Amino acid sequence: MNYLFVGVDISKEVLDYAIVDQTHKRVVDQGQVENNMEGINEFIKQLKKLQINTTVWVCAEHTGRYGDLLVARMENKELRYSMVNSIEIIRSSGMVRGKSDHIDAKRIGTYAATHYHKLKPTTSPSQTIRKIKVLLTSRDQYVRYRTAMKNALKALEITSETLDLKKEIKCRKKEIKTLKQRVKDLEQEIVELIKSDYQLDENYQKTTQVTGVGPIAGAKFLVTTNNFTLFDNPRKFSCYCGLAPFEHTSGSSVKGKAKTSKLRNKDMKGIMFNAATSAIQYDQQLRTYYKRKIKQGKHKLSVINAVANKLVLRVFAVVNREKPYVNFSI
Fold first, then answer.
1. pLDDT tens sequence across 158-182
2. What is the DSSP letter of 244?
3. Percent of the chain scored above 90 by pLDDT?
C-alpha cells in the first residue's frame, strides 16, 4: 500500500504542511492554511481528494492546545493521523541547516515517510479527559499564584514592622483565601468529572488506593496515560516521566553512574516525587527500604526516585488486575 505522508507544523495562527511521497521520499506539494475552522476545513478537503487514489497519513508534533481543532476535525472526517514527540523527530533528522515553519513541515513529513513502520495512529482522548486536563492546568496555575501571594505576604508582614501596611496585608490575605477556595472548587470539579465516567472512575479508585498517590496524582495518571491506554507497561511510563535510570558506560574508560534522562515530563516527575515522599511516611515497607538505602550511602534524591519507580509499578499492577490494592506493610 502506497502512502502520502503529510507533515504539519502547528503554530497559533497557521498550519504549514508538506506532502511527502512514501516511495521517493520527496515533497510533492506544500503550503500554508490558517489555524481556524475555515482554513482547516479547506485543508481537509484537499487531503480527502488525495485519498481517492492513495492513503493519506497526517503526522504532526505535540504542540498543546494549538492542534486541538485540527485533531478534532481529522477525527470527525476519519483521517489517519499520528502525534509524535518533537524530540524523536529532531534526533532522526540528522544535521539540519536553517529553521522555518515550512522546513519543519517538510522535516516532519520526511520523518513519517521514512519511519512509517514505527508510526501508530493516534486516538484523541475523550472530552472528559481533555476537560480534566484543562482543569488540572488551571488548578496548577492557581496553586502557583497562591504560593507567590503567600511569599509576598510574608515580605509585607516583615516590612510592616516599620511601615503601616495593614490595608495591603488585609487585601493579600483576602486574595489568598479566594485562591485557596478556587483550588478547592477545581479539585472538586475534577473528582466529579472522573466519577461521571465509569471507566475513568474505576481506574481512579484503584490508583488512589496505592499509598502515596493522592487525588491529584490519580487524576494526573488518568490524563497522562489517557486512562492507561498510551503505555502498555510501567517501564515505558517511568522512562516518559524521567524516573527510569539508564546505564552510562563506554568501553573501559567511561564508567559513570546510572542516571535518568533529561528528556522527561517534568510535571509528572514532580508529582511522583511528592507521592514517593508521602509514601515513605505512611508505608512501612517503603520506609524501611528508604532508611536501608540511605544507611548504605545512597543519595536521598536517588532513593526517592527509586521509591517513585516502585509506586509506578504498583499503580500499573493494580490497574491491570481485578483485585483491589492491598497494603501488606500495615
1. 999 999 999 999 999 999 999 999 9
2. S
3. 58
Reply yes or no on whether the pLDDT at 231 is more than 80: yes
Provide the 3-class DSSP secondary structure of residue 226.
coil
Nearest to 121 by CA among 85, 78, 82, 84: 82
Between CA 193 and CA 142 the distance in angstroms is: 19
Residue 302 has pLDDT above 50, yes or no: yes
For residue range 36-61, list pLDDT tens digits in order: 999 999 999 999 988 888 889 999 98
Task: Tell the residue number behind the cell numbers 473528582, with chain if given.
Answer: 191
For residue 210 the three cell numbers come to 496505592
The whole-number pLDDT of residue 24 equals 74
Give the CATH number of domain 3-118.
3.30.420.10
Cβ-based burial of 53 (10 A; exposed 0-12, middle 13-18, buried ≥19): exposed
Which helix (H) or strand (E) segment holds residue 111: the answer is: helix 101-114
Q: What is the pTM of this model?
A: 0.79
Predicted confidence band of residue 254 (pLDDT cuts 50, 70, 90): very low
DSSP 8-state assignment for residue 5 = E
Domain boundaries, the chain: 3-118, 127-196, 221-319
Helix (H) or strand (E) holding 61: strand 55-61
| Cell representation of residue 94 | 540528522
Number of residues in the chain:
330
**DSSP classification of residue 134:** H
Is residue 206 within 8 A of residue 319, CB to CB? The reply is yes
**246 contacts 240 by C-beta, under 8 angstroms:** no
Which residue's C-alpha cell is 504542511? 17
